[in-house]
Amino acid sequence: MDPISAIASQVWACKTCDNPLLRDMDRIAYQNFRAVHGKGFLFHNAFNVDFGKTYERQMTTGWHSIRDVYCNRCNAYVGWQYEKAEHETQSYKVGKFLMEAELLRQASGAIEKLQARL
Ligand SMILES: [Zn+2]
Q: Domain Yippee, which positions (predicted)?
């Protein structure tokens, strides 16, 4: 496998049950974010997840409408999705997933396998 496809096949799985939730290639590499359990990563997309109800949360960057994201196999909380941001500067986050680094585990697995589980 060449280095590029090796990177592309990296996935992030639920730490509790190993369900693959994210592709490393979907990670937005601006910076690390602050999440509830410590460090958080921002992703364009997530797989194999369920959503909670939309609610508002005050953050250091202003009010955001978010909904919590859960692993669809074991129901563990793993992060949230941004639905709306108060400030224009934060609008790049809308629709994106802020995932808790502490609750994920990096694994390698084919993307095809991940997509087949959708
Ligand atoms: Zn899980």
A: 10-108
Query: What pLDDT does 34 receive?
Result: 85
Q: How far apart are the C-alpha atoms of 48 and 114, rounded to whole Å?
A: 9
Instruction: Express each pLDDT in 17-42 by its tens digit.
Output: 999 999 888 999 767 888 888 999 99
What is the distance in A from the centroid of ligand 1 to the CA of 34? Answer: 21
Tally the domains of the chain: 1
Residues contacting residue 114 through CB under 8 Å, at least 6 positions apart: 11, 20, 23, 47, 48
The CA 12 to ligand 1 mean position distance, Å, reads 11
Q: What residue numbers bound the domain in which 26 lies?
A: 10-108
